[in-house]
Predict the 3D structure of the following.
Amino acid sequence: QKEVEQNSGPLSVPEGAIASLNCTYSDRVSQSFFWYRQYSGKSPELIMSIYSNGDKEDGRFTAQLNKASQYVSLLIRDSQPSDSATYLCAVNIGNQGGKLIFGQGTELSVKP
Amino acid sequence: DTEVTQTPKHLVMGMTNKKSLKCEQHMGHRAMYWYKQKAKKPPELMFVYSYEKLSINESVPSRFSPECPNSSLLNLHLHALQPEDSALYLCASSQVPGTGSSYEQYFGPGTRLTVT
């Protein structure tokens, strides 16, 4: 079983819709969870971090964490074509220093 | 503007060359990272430095040699690379995990390496 799993997509949504990206992880001691956006040919850009159960909102982005279900998600409201990118879920394993385990990424396409 | 910078942006090198990748961060972080990313794959951790000391080496071949001269600089020395080492090399920095601070990792723009 992979440590961090994401649907690879591509996920296609119309402009203005809500895009929902999901991620599950296997290690129960995981403490910190991150979402990165990566445009083609560019480096990953941190867009959200979440450390405790519940929702965290930042502008059009909402991260949701459920440690009991080992599940973290990212919602993008009012999706724009500029949101088209690969979204990487990353999990920090509690006892391995700064090591981040990345999911395979979900490719999001927002159609005008 | 990114606060983690990397040079060069692109590098083409032969299998017998020696070259170095450079990374500098201006975020006051004390942890720095090297990642390798192949096309359509997530970043793979190579090395972690905490307080200028190597804390994690993910069993990286010795043809990759990291160096952390001070708290804001990180180098990756390359020697006798193989064509399969061609990839995007990413540097990142964060607060040191376990110090009570949040430790989001921030990436530099990367160096696109091609080994011929």
